[in-house]
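PT: before anyone asks, these are the final sequences, not the draft ones from last week. 268 residues across everything. Please model them as a single complex and drop the result in this thread when it's through.
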Amino acid sequence: MAKRKRPLSPHLHIYKGQISSVVSVMQRITGGGLAVGLGFFVYWLGAAAYGPDAYATAHWFLTTWFGYLCLFGFTVCMYFHLCNGIRHLVWDIGWGFEIHQVNAGGIAVLAATGIFTVITWAVALAKLGVF
Amino acid sequence: MTLRSALGPEPGSKRSSLGHARGLGSTGHGSAHWYWERLTALALVPLTVWFIVQLLSGVAADYDSMAMWLTVPGNMVLMVLLTFFFFWHAWIAVAVVIEDYVHHDATKIGGIIALKFACILFGAFAVVSIILVGLGG
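LR: through. Structure below.
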């Protein structure tokens, strides 16, 4: 018997982006980013264990523009994943399942990520004397 | 449970559907990964906040500051715990991502095994590094 073409369920592109789904997908993406960040974390600690010269090299690399770009990305990923992770833990104890709470929580996570990232880098750059 | 039994009754089997299904269900450990992902997340909330505050106070600015910082037992312990929970959380969560997006069985199983060995290798390396620096190595 010839194989009949069966109808497929609607694929991703048909759905309009919603705050709930976008934040959910971003939790995975930022988690992936942080897994990459773990590599930097281990390199930094390993460099310290290998001594002052290795540490100076790691410090040089992490303060190049590429290093800063990565660290900035990890900061965004960290705050997003942390804040949204707390949102998940709140859901796990049974709170915040109404649609308006889910939407407000998503926006709060995005706002908190922005605010914490700006504060963190303002402090970091102020200490380095950039401004 | 064997793979054959998961596919359904043997062709021509005299067992009823219920008889086949019995004993193939939950082992009672189905929520273990879910639980440990949450528990490690809970531990990582204060640890990561502490870590960011430490970095912003300049402990990583140069080798001497970092070595001095890790000499303090409390800092060393918290760094070891941070590393431990980072890798434990990644061990569970990255495996879920692989399970969801990799559909080729050999690649999926190989990927998960590689992930678990990588977590052990890099986690052990990071913990040993922290302790060596803290003890003045």
